[in-house]
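Re: beginner question about structure tokens

> Can someone show what the tokenized structure looks like for a real chain? I only ever see the sequence side.

Sure, here's an example I had lying around. Input first:
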Amino acid sequence: MLNPADVVEALGSTNSRLEKEKILQQAWDNGILEFFQGTQLALDALVTFGIARAPLIEEGDDGGSFTWHEFSALAQRLQRRELTGNSARDEIRSAAERAPARLWNLWYRRLLLKDLKVGVTEATINKVLGANGAEGKKYLVPVFSCQLAKPAEDHPKKMRGRKLLDRKYDGVRLLTVLDKQAGTVRQFSRDGREKNNFPLLVESLTRLLPVINESLVLDGEVISSNFQTLMTQVNRQEDVDTSDCRLILFDIVSLKDFRAGVCRISQHDRHLALCELIPLFVEFGDDRLVVEPKLEVDLDTQEGAKAMNEFNQMVLAEGLEGVMIKDPAAPYQCKRSDAWLKIKPSIAVDVTVVAVEPGTAESKFSHTMGNLVCEGVDHGRYIRVEVGSGFSDDLRDQIWAHRAEVVGRVVEMKGDALTQNQQNPDVWSLRFPVFLRFRGWAPGEKI
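And the corresponding structure tokens:
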């Protein structure tokens, strides 16, 4: 391998992850550093070039000389939106005509389209780079991440002192990047997948770009009148209707700090900064942009403990998902942190096993039980649910070995909420079901 196009071609020739890692290591050993510089551009979710198309060059046309330095300069101008529209099209066409066809088609063009088409993720590339010491780490692909919460029950010692309480909504986490320099508003899931199905929210937020002082990331939850309907709309490719969606905002950080992975401004002060934008949200948001208020309590006092309990009961009565407990002095960290704790109610039901399903072919459980299919009636509602979580490997094997006897057994399981089937309103299920136990049968007991 001599250049990035060779690396791309080699990676595309195999489906084996181990083989891909070997190819990446060989590229590193051969000093093809342009490949790793390019993957930083292609796989970083926050890097955009503002184009949807780039020309293919007819094979056999070796073009002239076009260097990585020239491409980097072109990419930077596109990122900064110094080139847009026809100007961008003309500059890209000029670059394509000056580059060797194979190098353009397999490498430069794919970088601009942010799709290497080789089945390699940033995790695989970063694994190889991380194994090559400090020099390799210079080329790590930035991984999109945001602050995540930990279960409060796992951190009882953190449930003390002054806290800020939020409602935990029954919606979808949505991080909105307002890039003032690029003049764009883009929305992402918590794992970095871009979400393009909320045009009215984007339209409202785009009006903020001229009046904010720097590029920002707004952290929030998008909600609608019905969770199941929302989930069907989030990833639809056509006939999308998210017109009733609202964005509940609960945090704000600068884009610079978000990219660095930490914002040192305290939770308390970040909330004040978010509240300062409320007049703009009201003016430009058409009632779609809402700042979640925070209740401050001191859990070391009886009054604070009582206030939190009353807040929790109120949230449950509203049918929401739970309560977030946040440390007012903590920074925003793009990782799971006990600075945010969550209390989520759960629903437990007793249902009867009607079928034992095998694991999916070629999965870890292909030789044993994958799911239990269960049915039953709870508080007058007919429930049908498939549960595949909450089992040890040994218990899976026991159930699979005695699957005929397991059918008809009563099991207890829990979930976040009861959900109504959209096609058949008389059927309900559990969201995120987890197996708890068999009623009247213990693991290891002979069936």
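Each token stands for a local structural state, so reading them left to right follows the chain. The chain has a mean pLDDT of 91.
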